[in-house]
Amino acid sequence: MEGSGDASRAVADWRLAVWTLCSVLLPVLITAWCSFQRSRRQLLIRDIFRKSKHDWHYTDLFGQPSYCCVCAQHILRGAFCGCCGLRVSERCLKKADQRFLCKEIMMRGTGGGPSSMPHHWIRGNVPLCSCCMVCKQQCGTQPKLCDYRCVWCQYTVHDECMVDCLRTEDCTFGEFKDLIIPPYYLSIINQMRKEKRTSYEKVVPYCRKHWMPVIVLANTRSGNNMGETLLGEFKMLLNPVQVFDLSKIAPAKALQLCTLLPCNAVRVLVCGGDGTVGWVLDAIDEMKIKGQERYIPQVAILPLGTGNDLSNTLGWGAGYAGEVPIEQILRNVMEADGVKLDRWKVQVTNKGYYNLRKPKVFTMNNYFSIGPDALMALNFHAHREKTPSLFSSRIINKAVYFFYGTKDCLVQECKDLNKKVELELDGERIELPNLEGIIVLNIGYWGGGCRLWEGMGDEPYPLARHDDGLLEVVGVHGSFHCAQIQVKLANPVRLGQAHTVRENSSLQKGCRQTLPLSLYICGQCENTLITAR
User: What is this enzyme's EC (predicted)?
Assistant: First the structure.
C-alpha cells in the first residue's frame, strides 16, 4: 500500500512538473512565434517598400476614417502612399502595389500631344469637405470606399457621376497648374536633351505665359521636425520630382532641375530655418559661378526653424506649426512679389603665423556677432550636432538657448570685449564703451523676433532695412542686457551704420586660448531676389 501511494504521489508530482513547464514554455513559445511572424511581415513590407514605385509609409493609426483600396474594408492601420494617396491594409499591400499605378514623374510617351494628359483617378478616401466637379455636391459622405479623386488636379467625382468621358478627359492640373511640372513636359525635355537641343523656354505647358514652376526643398531636421510631414503633402499636390529632402540630397544638386526649366521662371520654396535658407542661397551662388545666371530662381520661405529672423523680415512669418493649409502656402508663393536682399562678404584673417594662412571668406545674410549671443549659438549648435534627437521642438530649442544665456550671465566669459576689439565703420575708428558683445545687422529682426536696432522704439532712429546697402552695428553689455532688449526693457548701444565694417581683435577661442583675428565685412554681394508675401 505504501509503495502504491509513493508511486501515485510521484505520478502527481511528475504531472505537476509537466503542467508547470507547459504553463511557462507555452507563453514563451507563443510570444516567440508572434515576434518571428511580425519580424517576417516587417521584412516583407520593407521589401515591398524598397522595390515599389509608390512612396509607401506605414502607420499604426490613420488620422481620418480610411478604407482599403483593394478589399474596401475599414482599416485603422496600414500603409499609405505619400504621392498618390492610396491607403491599404497590411495584407492587401502587395496586391495594391501591383494593381495601382503611382504618379508618373515623367511620361513614357506624350500620348495625344505635347500638352495633353488624362486624369489619374484614385477611388476612395477623398479629402473631407471636397465637392464633386459634376454635381457640386459633397463627396466622401458615405461610410465606405466611394467616389474618385484625380491625383493631379485634386478634383473629386461621385461614383454615380463618373462617366466614361471623365476617365479619358484631359487633366487641367487644377488650381496649381502654374506651379506643377507636368510629366509630359519632362518627357519632351528628355527627348530634346537626347537631340542636344536646349531651347527649353519654347516648351511651355498649356501655352501659358505665366508658368512659374516651384521647387520645394525641405530640411527634416529644422526646428519642430515638421519637414517629413510637409514632404508628403507637397508630393500629393505637385509632381514628386519637384520635392526634395535636404537630408538626402544637397541643395546644389536639387537646384540643377532649374536648368531644365524656362529661364527666370522658377521659384524655390525653402522649408526650414535661417540656416537652411543660407545653405540654399550659397548653392545659388554656386550656380552663378558655373555660369547659370539665367536659371537663378527666386526664393520663398516656409519657416520651420527656431529663430526664423530672415523669414520674419521678408514677411513669411516667425514660425510655422501647421496652422496654415499647404494649399494656402502655395497660393502665397504664387502671389508673392520679388524683393532684394543685401548679402555681404565676411573675411576672417588669422593675424598669426606670419599671415601665411589664406583668409576665410563667408557670406552673411542675417547678422554677425562677437560676444554672448554668438557663444550661445555656438553651444547650441554643438549640442544639437551631438544629440539631434533631443531637439525636436521649437520650445525645447529656445529652452536650451535660455539655459546657455543664464549660464553666461553667471560666468561672463566675454566680459571686457571693448579692451580686446578695435572697431572701424567705413574706415573711421569707433571708441567703444564697456561691452561684452558687438552685433552687425543686415536685417531688421534678431534673436528670434526682436527689432534690435529700434530697441524700445522710444528714440527717433531710422528703421533697419534689408535692401538699403547699409549695416547696423550695435553693442550689448551681456546676456542679461540681450534679454532686456528682447522684452523691450532696454535699448542696445547703437554704434552706427556703415557700408564696411572692420574689427581687429585679440579674442579668446572658447574664452580660454588667445586668438588674434582681423574681421572685415565688405561691400555687398550681388543682390539675390527673394519673394516676400
Answer: 2.7.1.107
